[in-house]
Design brief:
By secondary structure, the protein is α/β, with parallel strands linked by helices. The chain is built from 14 helices and 19 strands. The protein has a nine-stranded mixed β-sheet, sandwiched between helices. An eight-stranded mixed β-sheet has the order 14-13-12-15-16-17-18-19, with helices on both faces. The longest helix has 20 residues. It binds zinc ion (2 copies). The site of one zinc ion has 5 residues, from strand 6.
Length: about 475
């Protein structure tokens, strides 16, 4: 199991303001966190800081937490059914921090066992260095033995930008390869090294997803998951990147076809691509998605979009979503539009953007959108969903989604958020729209709640598992 910590940009800003106010002395505070358990990565999602009052800690160059502060923090996170994390600073150091003997003793031998007892969750320790770099570890329970220290592979800060602090021992810095020369010359070795260690999930391996896989493999991304339970059919061949006649003939899996192509396109020597013949609306697929740093929503249904929208806030994994709406009548274009946006903390959600029709989610859950009888009834009233699409649209959308990804992870445009970008065939323009979530939006309120606030899935995790 890997361990990774994530927090929103807002929480990070608040933590930095308190913890690094006076860089001449160490400082400390507690944080409430919630778990989000991926199939191979356990995510610690920092939710809310718990600050000490003057009589709850002693500063003497180093910092000492007094028992009354520890007791108050434990009680608070227990009442919130979450876990406890302790953060302290090393204001004179830079980069990922190792543990000193006294730090290890205090976290593992003094606090961890007690935190288990009160919260049922492992203690998490974080260190913040003077140059604002995070490092993190977790203390796992062992029966009748003292807790064992496991280092996290990364600390991620999610907002307008995705910033990742990698553990240099578990995820060492990567050297860009010669194939990446032109790409690296745009944003430099450090950012390219981050991309080379990133795990990105492409949900949906149809015409858009298969093209995104090709783009990311060439850009040098470290690891790609491709999730799709569908098989290649003959009518996919006019749009599906790298698919062959024989793939349709033998009904090969779309996710496996996309991975086969990714290995041909890769520029990263350590590249890995894993196909997942799963659905994001089932718990197995949902847990696989929680292993990723960024997700692409290349699905064409409202329910999977809603699940991905939920994940982006509740589990702090930014989601880049795209959609196509294309309709002709007797060879004449009625409308042709595609749009892309990035959702997650500090951004407007898909529901408030109208990226899916919330009214159709229940129809999707009931299987009505696949029901020929239901579709034929819609046809009579002219409301049937258009399945029309052309490869120039899917490739352009894959490009636009990838540009959203580039700005999220590199911030070369100095914006982080490019807004919702919509291309209209007739006007030919792509003008960004910036909005905020509705004050009552249920998604923006779930930030960092993880498994404490699961989306509606096809299988009920409380009963089926
Ligand atoms: Zn220390
Ligand atoms: Zn919203």
């Amino acid at each position: 199991m890997e361990f990774s910590v994530a927090m929103s940009e807002t929480l990070e800003n608040n933590l930095l303001e308190f913890l690094l106010k006076d860089k001449t002395e160490e400082e400390a505070c507690f944080v409430l966190w919630y778990p989000a358990k991926g199939s191979k990565r356990f995510n610690v999602l920092l939710k809310e800081m718990i600050l000490p009052s003057e009589d709850e800690r002693v500063k003497h160059g180093n910092i000492s937490i007094l028992p009354n502060f520890f007791d108050r923090a434990k009680e608070y996170v227990r009442s919130k059914r979450g876990g406890l994390a302790l953060i302290h600073t090393h204001p004179l150091s830079v980069g990922w921090q190792d543990l000193s003997g006294p730090d290890l003793h205090y976290e593992r031998d003094v606090m961890a066992q007690e935190v288990f007892g009160v919260t049922g969750l492992p203690l998490v320790g974080l260190t913040l260095s003077g140059n604002q770099a995070w490092s993190a570890r977790i203390y796992r329970r062992r029966a009748k033995k003292r807790p064992v220290l496991s280092w996290c592979i990364s600390v991620r800060v999610v907002g307008k930008q995705l910033k990742t602090y990698y553990n240099p021992k578990l995820k060492p810095k990567q050297c860009p390869s010669d194939e990446m020369l032109r790409t690296t010359s745009v944003w430099g070795d450090d950012i390219q090294s981050d991309l080379m260690r990133m795990r990105v999930g492409i949900i949906g391996a149809g015409s858009v997803g298969s093209a995104v896989v090709e783009i990311l493999s060439r850009m040098g991304i470290g690891e790609i998951y491709v999730m799709d339970y569908d098989k290649v059919e003959i009518h996919n061949l006019d749009r599906l990147v790298s698919a062959k006649q024989s793939d349709a003939k033998y009904s090969r899996s779309k996710s496996k076809i996309a991975c086969r192509n990714a290995y041909k396109a890769k520029t990263n020597p350590d590249f890995r691509c894993k196909p997942h013949v799963l659905s994001i609306v089932e718990e197995d697929g949902y847990r696989v998605a929680l292993n990723c740093d960024v997700l692409f929503s290349c699905v064409d249904r409202p329910w999977p979009r809603q699940v991905l929208n939920h994940i982006s806030y509740a589990s702090l994994i930014p989601v880049i979503n795209g959609g196509v709406s294309f309709k002709t009548d007797h060879g004449r274009l009625i409308h042709g539009v595609f749009r892309a946006e990035t959702v997650g903390p500090e951004r407007v959600c898909m529901n408030c953007l109208g990226s899916y029709d919330a009214g159709e989610i229940q129809l999707d859950r009931e299987g009505k959108l696949d029901d020929p009888q239901y579709i034929s009834e819609l046809k009579k009233t002219g409301q049937e969903p258009s399945r029309q699409n052309i490869m120039p649209f899917s490739i352009s959308l894959a490009g636009l989604e990838s540009i959203q990804f580039v700005e999220l992870v590199t911030r070369i445009g100095r914006k982080g958020d490019l807004g919702q970008q919509t291309y209209d065939y007739y006007s030919g323009e792509i003008l960004p729209v910036y909005k905020e979530c509705h004050p009552e939006c249920e998604y923006s309120k779930t930030v960092a709640e993880g498994d404490a606030n699961m989306p509606y899935l096809a299988d009920d995790p409380h009963i089926d598992k």
